[in-house]
Specification:
Blueprint (H helix, E strand, L loop, with lengths): L1 H20 L8 H18 L30 H15 L2 H29 L9 H7 L1 H5 L15 H12 L7 H5 L7 H30 L10 H8 L5 H21 L2 H11 L17 H17 L2 H27 L8 H10 L2 H17 L19 H27 L1 H5 L3 H23 L16 H15 L3 H25 L1 H4 L5 H5 L5 H10 L1
Helix pairs in contact: 1-9, 1-14, 1-20, 2-11, 2-12, 2-13, 2-14, 3-13, 4-9, 4-11, 10-11, 12-13, 14-17, 14-20, 14-21, 17-19, 17-20
Keywords: Amino-acid transport, Glycoprotein, Membrane, Transmembrane, Transmembrane helix, Transport
Protein name: Cationic amino acid transporter 3-like
Subcellular location: Endomembrane system
Amino acid sequence: MLVINNSQEGAESQLGYSCRKGPHPPKHNRASRTEWHEATGARRAQKRGFNLPGLFLPSGGKLKTRRPSPPFPPRSNHRRRSFLLWLPGLLSFGVSESALVNKIFTAINLLVLSFVIVAGFVKGDVKNWNLSAEDCQNRTETLLESGQKVRFGNGGFFPFGFQGVLAGAATCFYAFVGFDCIATTGEEARNPQRSIPISIIISLIICFVAYFGVSASLTLMVPYFLVDKESPLPDAFKVVGWEPARYVVAIGSLCALSTSLLGSMFPMPRVIYAMAEDGLLFRFLFRVHARTKTPLVATVVSGIIAALMAFLFELKDLVNLMSIGTLLAYSLVAICVLILRYQPELFRFSKDLEMLEINGSEEEKMTINSTVGDGQNAFKEKFSCRSLFFPAEDNPTHVSGRIVYISTTAVAVTITALCGILAHEWEALLEGSVGWVIACVILLGILLAGTAVIWRQPESKTRLTFKVPGLPLLPLFSILVNIYLMMQLDAGTWARFAVWMAIGFAIYFGYGLQHSEEGQGAQQSPSAADKGLPSAHSELSQELAI
């Protein structure tokens, strides 16, 4: 449900841009920096040979290493890093060629997944999901005698309780990375308004079925605490007497790795291209190859950076970084959807006005003209405490939009503090610690008050092909769950993530902010200028000046 919710919010925010602005993804927003890091991290982790079953460990989802890691990854992984370097060349040939290769690999993936799922359910034993702690201990006596540490919790279907499920989910959330690739590459779709939301939902359902099926079949064949972390599926088929099946798994693994890499690398150059076009990144990344019509420089640079980072970091670090980056990106998407839904039409960018003036229906044009005309008086509205719960207008105004903006920020900060307490002081809360209980009550009060203020503000009545339902509760619930999962990650991941974001902010504030065309408001809609209408940027500047 959380993933579907995030996909809906991502579809709306990305779709609104793809349908109105043409071929490029959003340029000037806070999520762009996170997406840039996120897509690069995805390629790093996938290139390192990531596999989901290896994450289902008896440590509550936390990855363990068998021996201390060397300063750099083993030399045997260098071939896998070299494998990454041919993909930018393939993507540079164009969309059609890349799509053909991806279709072939995907077809093989589906066949192998179907084989693994069916074979696992045929050879599996449901008793492996209902083992008691005594059964687990009896079946691990050999391992215990050899000195290996085996943790099997309390047995049963949830051997490590709800906290173990959440700890594993924070890392395994990585499995659903990439749905935003569909929206980012909306330029290739003929009817993005319809195809993007449908594609996102269908792809997530397919991913869920595939991961659920493989994980279920694996744990049915082999008890969860005996799953081999290095080669889970081949070892499982060996246990049940189907050792030749490992060759099928090997073919599927190779194709799955190639498909994942292609899927991650395909949208990344387009994100870099769009940001470089606006000035958020260096201008040389904006170059397009004359024959293939692809962002060649951005493709090559992103591929080299991914290979370099794969050489420097271990798989565990990449997976955790990807998880925290993805959860943050999903939270930002939910926040953006919540804010934008309550903003007046006055705050459309000038390019949005231009696109609707050219391609919009007569009804939409009349709505735009009336909204812009009324916008001259909108800035004269003054804030009052009554407007928090009883707004003066039925349509969004600059006052109601600002109220939602401030309330959403306060709610997000409150949720972060509340999730930090729930994640790290849960035992103290269960013991009845007065201080933590009072803190939670105060934070819950602020959260409910902020939600009520947002709920009372007028919502935009703009007709869109796809809208996130259940505002403001659904986006707020998404933010709550995402941040709580982020709090489940260890301190080392947060430290690396802080450095990661510091580099992004340094580029943004050191270069992008000064060179961004959107940020400077240098462009004005020709259609708006011809009609004597104020541009969105000029209106926004006036409002901020007030």
